[in-house]
Write a structure and sequence with these properties.
Blueprint: H1 13-29, H2 35-39, H3 44-72, H4 79-109, H5 123-164, H6 186-193, E1 202-207, E2 210-215, E3 219-225, E4 228-233, E5 238-241, H7 245-251, E6 257-259, E7 264-267, E8 271-276, E9 282-286, E10 294-296, H8 298-308
Helix pairs in contact: 1-3, 3-4, 3-5, 4-5
Length: 310
């Protein structure tokens, strides 16, 4: 069974609570010439309570919608789909709920006629603007988190690159594949001929000035970052290796790892889902999520599907 993405709502309960209180009073007092008359009015408490409940439900719903879409349809690889879902689920549905809620409260419960109610002509357009604004807040925060995450990863990679040439990366555990023209020794010939039982089990990666042994089964995928090979574990930890993808292909178990393209080697457990693209290509989504889709060419697509069904 493949692991599922964890959906976590934004932790802004107190912010939503305060905003809902402010919105409730704002809409109650909107367009009024006398605050005293409003406060002494028959429906003042009921109006404030209804406005608070409506505002809190709408802001909470938008919170959950954005948390789900951020996980399932991040902006970068799914921009068009995400924008469509954002408009429908984040704007249209909350706006329809506001309309239905206030119609039930004003017309059905309080017994006003549509001519007596100004909400649908004044407050409702403002409500739509607030719904759009609240979506923009979450979308902006998403891009802020992504930018911060990328800066942290870039800083970490720079530190690793700085020490890469000075650190022993564990050649005793992961033997280097000889370059073209070099004589292959007897031990390496045995390694290539004995099959999957002799495949590498441990890799020694670099993190700062540390050499970290990493079990191969805990690695989600390998990818090229510039001229260096980077691995990412299922715990979303990122490390550098002093070996090319071509070298790793020969040392990894082909039943567990697949060379998707020139930039990626993937673990079968890291395959979340794939979609069929034009010209017979496949677009693969990984776990943990990578910043870009992994595109498998038409020539490799059949081999990939056979590998999944092995």
């Amino acid at each position: 069974m493949k692991p599922e993405k964890v959906i976590s709502a934004y932790h802004d309960f107190w912010l939503r609570l305060c905003v809902s209180v402010l919105l409730a009073f704002f809409f109650v007092f909107l367009g009024s010439d006398s605050l005293t008359d409003i406060i002494k009015g028959k429906y003042f408490i009921a109006d404030v309570l209804a406005g608070f409940i409506l505002s809190f439900i709408v802001t909470t719903f938008i919170n959950l919608v954005n948390a789900y879409l951020d996980t399932q349809y991040p902006w970068h690889p799914h921009f068009a789909t995400r924008l469509l879902y954002q408009i429908i689920a984040g704007v249209v549905v909350p706006a329809a709920f506001v309309l239905g809620f206030m119609y039930t409260y004003l017309i059905v419960l309080l017994g006003f006629t549509s001519q007596e109610v100004q909400f649908f002509h004044t407050e409702f357009p403002i409500s739509i603007l607030f719904i759009i604004f609240w979506n923009v807040v979450y979308v902006s925060y998403f891009f802020y988190k992504e930018s911060k995450k990328q800066k942290i990863e870039l800083h970490s990679l720079k530190e690793q690159l700085f020490t890469l040439q000075q650190v022993n990366t564990g050649e005793e555990i992961l033997p280097l594949i000889p370059q073209s023209g070099e004589q292959v020794n007897a031990d390496e010939e045995i390694l290539n001929e004995t099959g999957s039982d002799s495949k590498i089990k441990i890799l020694v990666a670099v993190s700062g000035n540390k050499n970290i042994p990493i079990p191969v089964e805990s690695i989600a995928y390998f990818f090229k970052a510039g001229s260096f090979t980077t691995l990412k574990t299922f715990q979303s930890d990122t490390y550098l290796l002093n070996h090319s993808l071509d070298e790793l292909v020969r040392l990894l178990d082909e039943f567990i790892f697949f060379r998707a393209n020139r930039q990626f080697i993937i673990n079968i457990k890291a395959c979340h889902y794939f979609t069929n693209e034009e010209n017979g290509k496949l677009a693969l989504q990984l776990i943990p999520v990578h910043t870009e889709e992994v595109v498998i060419s038409q020539k490799r697509a059949a081999a990939f599907k056979d590998w999944l069904s092995q």
